[in-house]
Amino acid sequence: MAKDSDLPSSAPFAEIDTTVPVSARIWNYWLGGKDYYPVDKEAGDQFARFYPGIFDGARASRYFIARAVSYLVREAGIRQFLDIGTGLPTHDNTHQIAQRAAPDCRIVYADNDPLVLAHARALLTSSTEGSTDYIDADLNDPDALLPIAREKLDFGRPVAIMLMGILGHIGDPAQDDDRVAQSIVGTLKAALPSGGYLAIYDSANTGSGLNAALHSYNESGAAPYRVRRVDQIVRFFDGLELVEPGVVPIQQWRPDHSPFGTPQQMSNNLGGVARKP
Amino acid sequence: MDLPEVQAAQTDRTLDFEEAGPTAVRMLLGARLRRLRESARISQEDAGYAIRGSESKISRMELGRTGFKQRDVVDLVELYGVSEDERATLLAMAGHANSPGWWQAYSEAIPAWFEPYLGLEQAAEVIRTYQVQFVPGLLQTPAYAHAVLRIGAEDRSGLITNLRASLRMRRQQILHRPNPPRLWAVIDEAALRRPIGGPDVARGQLAHLIKMARLSNVNIQVAPFSSGSQAIAGGPITMLRFPEAELTDVVYLEQLTSALYLSKPAERLYYWNVLNRLATEAPPPTETEATLRGLLREI
Q1: In B68-131, at which residue ranges do the beta strands (DSSP E only) sit?
Q2: Radius of gyration over alpha carbons of chain B, in Å?
Q3: Which whole number is the average pLDDT over B259-275?
Q4: What residue in B sits closest to A14 (Cα-Cα)?
Q5: Which of B10, B249, B280 sits opposite A16 (nearest CB)?
Q6: What is the pLDDT along chain A (277 residues), one digit of tens a residue?
Q7: Neighbours of A208 (CB within 10 A)
Q8: Which residues of B touch A118 (CB under 8 A)?
Q9: Is the dihedral of CA B16, B22, B25, B27 positive or negative?
Q10: Beta strand extents in chain B (DSSP E only)
């Protein structure tokens, strides 16, 4: 083997912490996966005691991602994606959905959890003429994240930036009129080329069960997750043109035609997709 | 994207009974029967009584540790009240659970403790492995496999060694089939530096690893000497993940004359965590080709 000093960028990874719950692993548990530690299951179950809808809600959010990505490829013609806050691999990941619709799609996943990165690099690979790539980056520092993303995606052509269920980890919307998150999203919007898209879903404070569940969650040692007011979520899209039907509960966003209709019980998650003019 | 496509993508990955062999089908059938029994709120004892057996017979069936009599499965699905469609699937599975796998042709060369692994490996969706001494079997060249298998082989004629080497090559076909499993291997630097079979064989093996690492379903990481987690691994580890939600991962620990199959939650967790540490501490797969080329130059 080459001497360590010869190896490019083999900076040591952060260690896996098995003593506190981690969002990506809790989500894996809620989604029926097999990649979580006991501490994650405990936090996930504790959350579900206050908010039993989380298991269905987690699935609904995956279906929203699938419909949003499919829309972006098939109807908006997008071929490049920056998916920030990837999470652990699940059954239908962004690149699989996108490349099924158009095999030449390029997907860059960004995450900063060591377990997510190791799994993504090993398991989220594409076998088509498109490509997938992974960057170790933190949404809290978009000025560091964007230059790495620019090396892998052509920002001279349309790109879709996806922030799916991650903004709850950013800033504290109750403390500072949401300046931190709005500024980060602003930086990303500024980087989007004309004709690029921003896709977001996140949790709104529209149910007391969710607030109680989050209170216990945020005490668990996991990275805190905070809900926003509906208008704060809508504001993320300021300056962009929302595609129909706007920012809505995710189940109502371009639902698939189903003989059973759209589910009546709506989650607290609001989602939307918008184009930069 | 619409919902039915999501479901289609998932069913793609379900077991191919013909390839999977009896072991995996037993586990799957057992897991389904347990789920059906639990949702019908019937105890193992009562289920055992219904098939003229004991609580422990049901327990063994549900863990996939035994074959299935058609008559027992017929009686159990009757007791659990399953739908006509599911009944037909379960009975077909019971048939497959008793039929031998393709590797029957190699039976002379297969130790009893290795046979279950073959069935599980063929059925896996993800094969994670950590190897300290040798290149993983699924990534070996014929020459390297022969050289490894000759070490400590007792058959003078070499017949068994040849049979084992060709079985190993046959196993590798899973990586090239449509919808192949993903192989995620962490190989200790020591295994790659050990000159098995002499310089030509070692060079051929390294070149083969470079080629295999380019497959989209093969992910290789080389753990350098400097990595700290080797010590907690203790030895080679393989962990198999199956596409079915109801099947838990199986940890396979191979020793010189036997193997351990671990599926208890605490044991799985321990080795899953070890594999995670090894994978996060080793340089990412994007650096593997450069590392292998460096080793190739040194031989």
Answers
A1: 126-131
A2: 21
A3: 88
A4: B280
A5: B280
A6: 333 333 333 344 567 888 899 999 999 999 999 999 999 999 999 999 988 889 999 999 999 999 999 999 999 999 999 999 988 988 889 999 999 999 999 999 999 999 999 999 898 887 667 889 999 999 999 999 999 999 999 999 999 999 999 999 999 888 878 999 999 999 999 999 999 999 999 999 877 788 888 888 888 888 888 899 999 999 999 999 999 999 999 999 999 877 666 665 667 899 999 999 9
A7: 10
A8: 276, 279-280, 284
A9: negative
A10: 126-131, 182-188, 218-223, 237-241, 250-254, 259-262
CA–CA distance, A250 with A83 (Å, rounded to integer):
18
| DSSP single-letter state for residue A16 | P
Q: Do A8 and B219 touch (CB under 8 A)?
A: no
Place of tokens 């009893």: B112
> Rounded CA gap, B245 and B14, in Å?
10
Task: Give the containing element (helix H, strand E) for B70.
Answer: helix B70-80
How many Å separate Cα A119 from the centre of its chain?
16
- Exposed, middle or buried, B214 (CB in 10 Å: 0-12/13-18/19+)? exposed
B chain contacts of residue A14, beta-carbon cutoff 8 Å: 280
Contact B257/A at CB under 8 A: no
Sign (positive/negative) of CA torsion B114, B115, B121, B122?
A: positive
Provide φ and ψ at A153, rounded to 5°.
-125, 150
**What token pair was written down for B103?**
């590797």
> Token pair for residue B213?
């690492």
Number of other residues whose CB lies within 10 A of the CB of residue B266: 8
Residue B199: other Cβ atoms inside 10 A = 9
**From the CA of A271, how many Å to the nearest CA of chain B?**
16
**Residue where the block lists tokens 């590392």:** B291
Prior bond of A245 cis (ω within 30°): yes
Q: Does B290 contact A2 at a Cβ distance shorter than 8 Å?
A: yes
Q: Are the beta carbons of A181 and A84 closer than 8 angstroms?
A: no
Scanning A64-93 for CB atoms below 8 A from B yields 66-67, 69-70, 91-92
Burial status of residue B137 (CB atoms within 10 A of its CB: 0-12, 13-18, 19 or more)? buried
CA distance B85 to B78: 13
Q: Tell me what ipTM this predicted complex has.
A: 0.85
Residue bearing tokens 């699905």: B77
Q: How many residues are listed for chain A in this entry?
A: 277
Residue A196 · residue A158 · CB < 8 Å: yes
Does the distance separating the beta carbons of B226 and A125 come in below 8 Å? no
- Rounded to an integer, what distance in angstroms lies between the CA atom of residue B1 and that of residue A256? 8
Place of tokens 């599911």: B86
Q: Are B295 and B206 in contact (CB under 8 A)?
A: yes
DSSP assignment string, A71-87: HHHHTT---EEEEES--
Which amino acid is it at B154?
Answer: E
CA distance linking residue A162 with residue A140, whole number of Å: 15
Going by the DSSP 8-state scheme, the letter that residue A260 receives in this structure is: T
For chain A, the C-alpha Rg in angstroms (whole number) is 18
CA–CA separation, A60 vs A58, rounded Å?
A: 5
